[in-house]
Amino acid sequence: MKKSTALWLSIFVMFTIVSWQARGAEDDKTLSVVADSWCPYNCDPTSKYAGYIVEILHAVFEPAGYQIKYNKTPWTRAIQGTRNGKYDIIIGAYRSDAPDFIFPKNPVGASQNVMARRKNDPWTYRGVGSLKDQAIAIVDGYSFGEELDVYLNNSDHNVIKLHGEDALRRALNMIRGATLHGVLDDANVLSYKIVDQGLEAVIALSNPIGDKKAVFVAFAPNIATSLERAKIFDEGLMALRSSGALDKILSRYQLEDWQ
Asked: What predicted TM-score, i.e. pTM, was given to this entire model?
Protein backbone atom coordinates (compact mmCIF):
# COMPACT_ATOMS: atom_id res chain seq x y z
CA MET A 1 0.00 0.00 0.00
CA LYS A 2 2.80 2.41 0.87
CA LYS A 3 4.66 1.48 -2.31
CA SER A 4 1.53 2.08 -4.37
CA THR A 5 0.94 5.43 -2.68
CA ALA A 6 4.53 6.46 -3.30
CA LEU A 7 4.22 5.42 -6.95
CA TRP A 8 1.10 7.51 -7.48
CA LEU A 9 2.70 10.42 -5.64
CA SER A 10 5.72 10.20 -7.94
CA ILE A 11 3.48 10.13 -11.01
CA PHE A 12 1.53 13.14 -9.70
CA VAL A 13 4.71 15.14 -9.04
CA MET A 14 6.11 14.28 -12.50
CA PHE A 15 2.81 15.27 -14.16
CA THR A 16 2.77 18.56 -12.24
CA ILE A 17 6.35 19.39 -13.24
CA VAL A 18 5.64 18.59 -16.90
CA SER A 19 2.47 20.73 -16.76
CA TRP A 20 4.38 23.64 -15.27
CA GLN A 21 7.10 23.27 -17.90
CA ALA A 22 4.54 23.16 -20.71
CA ARG A 23 2.70 26.15 -19.30
CA GLY A 24 5.99 28.04 -18.96
CA ALA A 25 6.90 27.28 -22.56
CA GLU A 26 3.43 28.38 -23.70
CA ASP A 27 3.70 31.63 -21.71
CA ASP A 28 7.13 32.27 -23.23
CA LYS A 29 5.54 32.13 -26.68
CA THR A 30 2.54 34.30 -25.79
CA LEU A 31 3.24 38.01 -26.03
CA SER A 32 1.01 40.20 -23.89
CA VAL A 33 0.57 43.47 -25.77
CA VAL A 34 -1.10 46.51 -24.18
CA ALA A 35 -1.89 50.16 -24.82
CA ASP A 36 -4.78 52.52 -24.47
CA SER A 37 -6.96 52.92 -27.56
CA TRP A 38 -5.01 54.95 -30.15
CA CYS A 39 -6.75 54.09 -33.37
CA PRO A 40 -5.67 53.66 -36.17
CA TYR A 41 -2.41 52.55 -34.50
CA ASN A 42 -4.24 50.18 -32.15
CA CYS A 43 -8.01 49.92 -31.86
CA ASP A 44 -10.67 47.70 -30.27
CA PRO A 45 -9.26 44.17 -29.77
CA THR A 46 -12.64 42.69 -30.72
CA SER A 47 -12.89 44.67 -33.96
CA LYS A 48 -12.17 43.29 -37.42
CA TYR A 49 -9.64 46.11 -37.65
CA ALA A 50 -7.72 46.00 -34.37
CA GLY A 51 -5.19 48.58 -35.54
CA TYR A 52 -2.42 48.47 -38.07
CA ILE A 53 0.35 48.00 -35.47
CA VAL A 54 -1.56 45.07 -33.97
CA GLU A 55 -1.80 43.53 -37.43
CA ILE A 56 1.93 44.06 -37.94
CA LEU A 57 2.69 42.28 -34.64
CA HIS A 58 0.58 39.31 -35.71
CA ALA A 59 2.26 39.20 -39.12
CA VAL A 60 5.76 39.38 -37.62
CA PHE A 61 5.53 37.11 -34.59
CA GLU A 62 3.06 34.38 -35.52
CA PRO A 63 5.33 32.90 -38.24
CA ALA A 64 8.04 32.82 -35.55
CA GLY A 65 5.84 30.64 -33.34
CA TYR A 66 4.45 33.32 -31.03
CA GLN A 67 0.87 34.22 -30.15
CA ILE A 68 -0.23 37.82 -29.71
CA LYS A 69 -2.59 38.61 -26.83
CA TYR A 70 -3.64 42.26 -27.20
CA ASN A 71 -5.69 44.15 -24.62
CA LYS A 72 -6.56 47.80 -24.06
CA THR A 73 -5.13 49.28 -20.86
CA PRO A 74 -4.85 52.92 -19.69
CA TRP A 75 -1.50 54.27 -20.86
CA THR A 76 0.16 54.91 -17.50
CA ARG A 77 -0.90 51.46 -16.31
CA ALA A 78 0.33 49.88 -19.56
CA ILE A 79 3.77 51.45 -19.13
CA GLN A 80 4.07 50.54 -15.46
CA GLY A 81 2.78 47.00 -15.95
CA THR A 82 5.23 46.39 -18.79
CA ARG A 83 8.06 47.90 -16.79
CA ASN A 84 7.23 45.45 -13.99
CA GLY A 85 7.17 42.48 -16.38
CA LYS A 86 3.42 41.91 -16.25
CA TYR A 87 3.16 42.65 -19.99
CA ASP A 88 5.63 42.14 -22.81
CA ILE A 89 5.02 45.00 -25.25
CA ILE A 90 3.46 48.44 -25.35
CA ILE A 91 2.11 49.85 -28.63
CA GLY A 92 2.51 53.38 -29.95
CA ALA A 93 5.34 54.59 -27.73
CA TYR A 94 7.69 57.50 -28.25
CA ARG A 95 11.19 56.98 -26.88
CA SER A 96 10.44 59.72 -24.35
CA ASP A 97 7.41 57.78 -23.02
CA ALA A 98 9.54 54.98 -21.58
CA PRO A 99 13.27 55.57 -22.20
CA ASP A 100 14.25 52.55 -20.12
CA PHE A 101 12.36 50.12 -22.39
CA ILE A 102 13.88 47.98 -25.16
CA PHE A 103 13.20 49.69 -28.48
CA PRO A 104 13.69 48.00 -31.84
CA LYS A 105 15.73 49.84 -34.48
CA ASN A 106 12.72 50.35 -36.72
CA PRO A 107 9.67 52.47 -35.83
CA VAL A 108 6.12 51.50 -36.78
CA GLY A 109 4.90 54.93 -37.70
CA ALA A 110 5.44 58.68 -37.57
CA SER A 111 3.33 60.89 -35.33
CA GLN A 112 2.54 64.58 -35.79
CA ASN A 113 0.89 66.36 -32.89
CA VAL A 114 -1.93 68.84 -33.51
CA MET A 115 -4.73 70.42 -31.52
CA ALA A 116 -8.37 69.54 -32.10
CA ARG A 117 -10.48 72.69 -31.70
CA ARG A 118 -13.81 74.15 -32.74
CA LYS A 119 -13.94 74.97 -36.45
CA ASN A 120 -14.75 78.63 -35.88
CA ASP A 121 -11.74 79.08 -33.58
CA PRO A 122 -9.02 81.10 -35.39
CA TRP A 123 -6.20 79.98 -33.03
CA THR A 124 -2.98 78.62 -34.51
CA TYR A 125 0.09 77.24 -32.79
CA ARG A 126 3.03 79.66 -32.72
CA GLY A 127 5.18 78.10 -30.05
CA VAL A 128 4.56 77.29 -26.40
CA GLY A 129 3.66 80.92 -25.68
CA SER A 130 0.56 80.64 -27.85
CA LEU A 131 -0.89 78.13 -25.36
CA LYS A 132 -1.18 80.82 -22.71
CA ASP A 133 -4.74 81.36 -21.48
CA GLN A 134 -5.88 78.26 -23.37
CA ALA A 135 -7.84 75.55 -21.56
CA ILE A 136 -6.50 72.38 -23.13
CA ALA A 137 -6.60 68.67 -22.37
CA ILE A 138 -4.08 65.87 -22.76
CA VAL A 139 -4.22 62.17 -21.96
CA ASP A 140 -2.31 61.56 -18.73
CA GLY A 141 1.04 59.88 -19.26
CA TYR A 142 1.55 61.04 -22.85
CA SER A 143 4.74 62.84 -23.80
CA PHE A 144 4.82 65.67 -26.36
CA GLY A 145 8.50 66.53 -26.35
CA GLU A 146 10.65 68.19 -23.70
CA GLU A 147 9.56 71.81 -24.20
CA LEU A 148 5.84 71.04 -24.35
CA ASP A 149 6.05 68.56 -21.47
CA VAL A 150 7.55 71.26 -19.23
CA TYR A 151 4.65 73.57 -20.05
CA LEU A 152 1.94 70.92 -19.77
CA ASN A 153 3.18 69.67 -16.41
CA ASN A 154 3.30 73.15 -14.87
CA SER A 155 0.46 73.37 -12.36
CA ASP A 156 0.09 77.09 -13.06
CA HIS A 157 -1.23 76.39 -16.54
CA ASN A 158 -4.80 75.46 -17.44
CA VAL A 159 -4.14 71.91 -18.55
CA ILE A 160 -6.56 69.07 -17.83
CA LYS A 161 -5.08 65.58 -17.65
CA LEU A 162 -7.65 62.99 -18.64
CA HIS A 163 -7.61 59.33 -17.65
CA GLY A 164 -9.32 56.23 -18.97
CA GLU A 165 -10.19 54.60 -22.27
CA ASP A 166 -12.71 57.30 -23.26
CA ALA A 167 -10.43 60.27 -22.55
CA LEU A 168 -10.41 61.62 -26.12
CA ARG A 169 -14.14 61.12 -26.55
CA ARG A 170 -14.79 63.17 -23.42
CA ALA A 171 -12.32 65.86 -24.50
CA LEU A 172 -13.95 66.24 -27.92
CA ASN A 173 -17.36 66.52 -26.30
CA MET A 174 -16.01 69.24 -24.01
CA ILE A 175 -14.73 71.13 -27.06
CA ARG A 176 -18.11 70.80 -28.74
CA GLY A 177 -19.73 72.16 -25.59
CA ALA A 178 -17.23 75.05 -25.50
CA THR A 179 -15.94 74.13 -22.02
CA LEU A 180 -12.49 73.36 -23.44
CA HIS A 181 -10.42 75.14 -26.10
CA GLY A 182 -8.65 72.06 -27.44
CA VAL A 183 -7.13 68.62 -26.94
CA LEU A 184 -3.55 67.83 -27.93
CA ASP A 185 -2.77 64.50 -29.59
CA ASP A 186 -1.62 62.75 -32.74
CA ALA A 187 -3.20 63.95 -36.01
CA ASN A 188 -4.14 60.44 -37.20
CA VAL A 189 -5.74 59.60 -33.87
CA LEU A 190 -7.72 62.83 -33.61
CA SER A 191 -8.90 62.58 -37.23
CA TYR A 192 -10.15 59.06 -36.55
CA LYS A 193 -11.97 60.07 -33.35
CA ILE A 194 -13.57 63.14 -34.91
CA VAL A 195 -15.02 61.05 -37.74
CA ASP A 196 -15.98 58.24 -35.37
CA GLN A 197 -17.99 60.69 -33.22
CA GLY A 198 -19.50 62.46 -36.22
CA LEU A 199 -17.95 65.80 -35.28
CA GLU A 200 -16.43 66.75 -38.66
CA ALA A 201 -18.75 69.76 -38.97
CA VAL A 202 -17.85 71.05 -35.51
CA ILE A 203 -14.19 70.22 -34.84
CA ALA A 204 -11.08 70.64 -36.97
CA LEU A 205 -7.33 70.18 -36.50
CA SER A 206 -4.78 72.95 -35.98
CA ASN A 207 -1.49 73.41 -37.76
CA PRO A 208 1.34 71.03 -36.75
CA ILE A 209 2.65 71.30 -33.20
CA GLY A 210 6.27 70.30 -32.76
CA ASP A 211 8.24 67.93 -34.93
CA LYS A 212 7.16 64.56 -36.25
CA LYS A 213 8.17 61.77 -33.90
CA ALA A 214 8.86 58.12 -34.53
CA VAL A 215 6.29 55.70 -33.09
CA PHE A 216 7.49 52.34 -31.77
CA VAL A 217 6.46 49.12 -30.17
CA ALA A 218 8.56 48.92 -26.99
CA PHE A 219 9.54 45.78 -25.12
CA ALA A 220 9.61 45.20 -21.37
CA PRO A 221 13.00 46.26 -19.93
CA ASN A 222 13.10 43.54 -17.27
CA ILE A 223 12.29 40.50 -19.42
CA ALA A 224 15.40 38.63 -20.55
CA THR A 225 14.04 37.78 -24.00
CA SER A 226 13.07 41.35 -24.92
CA LEU A 227 16.28 41.99 -26.88
CA GLU A 228 15.76 38.83 -28.91
CA ARG A 229 12.11 39.73 -29.55
CA ALA A 230 13.05 43.24 -30.64
CA LYS A 231 15.45 41.72 -33.18
CA ILE A 232 12.72 39.38 -34.45
CA PHE A 233 10.46 42.40 -34.84
CA ASP A 234 13.05 44.39 -36.83
CA GLU A 235 13.71 41.51 -39.20
CA GLY A 236 10.00 40.75 -39.59
CA LEU A 237 9.05 44.35 -40.29
CA MET A 238 11.69 44.64 -43.01
CA ALA A 239 10.37 41.43 -44.57
CA LEU A 240 6.81 42.78 -44.55
CA ARG A 241 7.98 45.97 -46.23
CA SER A 242 9.98 44.23 -48.95
CA SER A 243 7.17 41.75 -49.72
CA GLY A 244 4.47 44.41 -50.03
CA ALA A 245 2.52 42.95 -47.09
CA LEU A 246 3.04 46.12 -45.05
CA ASP A 247 1.38 48.26 -47.71
CA LYS A 248 -1.63 45.92 -47.70
CA ILE A 249 -2.01 46.25 -43.93
CA LEU A 250 -1.72 50.04 -44.04
CA SER A 251 -4.21 50.35 -46.91
CA ARG A 252 -6.93 48.90 -44.67
CA TYR A 253 -6.55 52.02 -42.51
CA GLN A 254 -6.19 54.47 -45.44
CA LEU A 255 -2.53 55.01 -44.54
CA GLU A 256 0.78 54.90 -46.42
CA ASP A 257 4.21 53.68 -45.37
CA TRP A 258 5.67 56.30 -43.01
CA GLN A 259 9.06 55.93 -44.73
From this structure: 0.79
